[in-house]
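Field reference: sequence -> structure
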Amino acid sequence: MSLLAGAFLAGLAVLAVPLLLHRLKERSPAETTVSSLMLMREAEEPARTRTALAHRVLLALRLALLAAITLAFAKPVVETVSGASIEDELPPADLVVLDVSLSMRRSSTWSEALDVVRDLRGNDPRGEGRLVLASDRLTAVSALVDAEPGWSRLDFAGLPQRIEAALAAWPTPPGGWRIHIVSDFQATAAPERFNALVEGIQWPVELHVVGGHSANWAVAADTIPAAAVGQSAQTGPDVARIEAVVTSFAADSRQIASPARRLAVSLHRDGEEVDRAAIAVAAGGRTPVAFDVPAMAEETVAWEVRIDADDALPADDVARVVQSARDGRRVAVLAPRAEDSGMRFLLAALDASGFAKPTLLDTDSVWRPADVDCLILVDPGSLPTSTERRLTRYTDAGGGVLTIVGPRTQRARLLPFGGEVGASPFSASLQVVVRDVGHPLAAGGWGGVTVDRALILPTGYGQTILSLVPRARDGAELGGVPMLTEQRLGAGRMVTLLTALDRQWSTLVLQPAFVGFVANVVDYLAGEFARAGHAGEPLPVTSGNVQLFDAQGVRVLALGDTTGGSGNVLRVAEPGLYSVRTPGKETLLAVNVDPRESDLAPMSADLVERWRSAAQRGGSALTRPAVEAATAKATGTPLAPMLLALGLALLIVESAAANVGRVRPRAWMGRA
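Structure field:
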């Protein structure tokens, strides 16, 4: 029941008036003190019980009358629900989620998926179903002819929440939803925590597995600067290197035992082949191959490494890489002790990334903020006041700072700009998990990094990009402690790495992720665009004007196509070589497919069955009340007329009861 004018309930306060009057009429009989009762005449005690009972009845009638009139003005309504029962409910509408990631580009797999989608949509007589394409994002399409496989990756972690967010934008059909996921269900797309596959979904889910395990070969490549290659009689001082790795993904254990396959690997520049090598790749193995190329001092060059594999996914048979000219960005490294071991790792990573030799500073150095594009603080500890002032001027002017902690910072318990830190309470190695997946610094192979020691920041210090959690658990449950954070400082920013560049603190300096992290953080803090990325992966946009052109000079994206996040980001849908133009600059961008899509091994049958069982069982229980609510229609019955009629009846009864005993019989009735 609900009230349409609930404010009238304040009128119930008038019920206090009859109660007060009733109490005033109840007077106790007067008592008189006498010396003796011997001369008193005995008399019968007057009967007061009948009179008191009549007063109470009248009081109850008057209170009921006033309450009925007050409630009538409040307009109560009794809501009754009528609609389809569970047995008679309408069938749910089908939401078909079609996997359009790179692994679905196999012709047989895609054809099988289209047949499944046609059957599902053919069983929708009411036409309320919808079709959604799933890869790095969800896209609704009106017809199946608009669907085609893309080049990016589908991650099943968080997919239920993404589906529910899409459903929230559409009206719920009378019978609710039934979700169908059509995919090849790659093992590399499965999250580490099983609950991430089902939590957050509110409708029953059915899984449709298409395709199978196919053998595949993939190539990845990177550039090695001339300084890192080293001189020899064959190479000379001006030779850099393109290093490639060819990986075999075997379809089953029988293929692993098969003989190694011989492949031709070729190096191309501007579409022309410049070098070739022949290698043998064992089934399920990896084979490296290297090409010596001229060191580019002034020019940036794009290379392509290709393999002739004739396999399931031709898209990953090409690896694109950009060989940068000796970078002109001005990087400064401020370290109170230049002989720290962390400096050796940092300088090697900067050199391997192609940056010019950094300027080395100490706390007594005098430098101008305008002469530095990116400043790296290595274990600063407690800095002099003059250095802190210079840092403040640098960040206020828009400068970027990377702070790397260490033993000095641990002893001082203080970061630049007033950040207090504490020692870590870790008793075992922790793993790195990504907290902000859209941040440019979250990319890279952080999964292999373990941390034994880190410093603890106070709660609310900046934005957490990476966290540390126990290896046996998932970061989404525990939240973890920050490892990499970002803080805005005036017009600039400071990124803080809370573990030292020391093998006793973590394995970071021993992992390939370290060199990539150093390159990314310098690009990010210096406001430069990324030089490499994966199809569908968010790339940072720090300039106010960015345009993207493909190899044919056709504009692909402009700044209006970027999306918000940590600054602006854009996503390049297809792999290839692109030209990035910003005011006064033009650079090359190499976009490759995500290497995790190359492994076509499906999830285990047990995992798929657990997912199917949990999704149908959990979704059905959650859907039942939702379907009832969606199909039911609420009607309201007003009670005000009935309350007014009741009030009128109470008024008549009260009047009659109040006059009982007051009207005496006429004389003629008495004579009779």
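Note: DSSP finds 14 helices and 36 strands in the chain.
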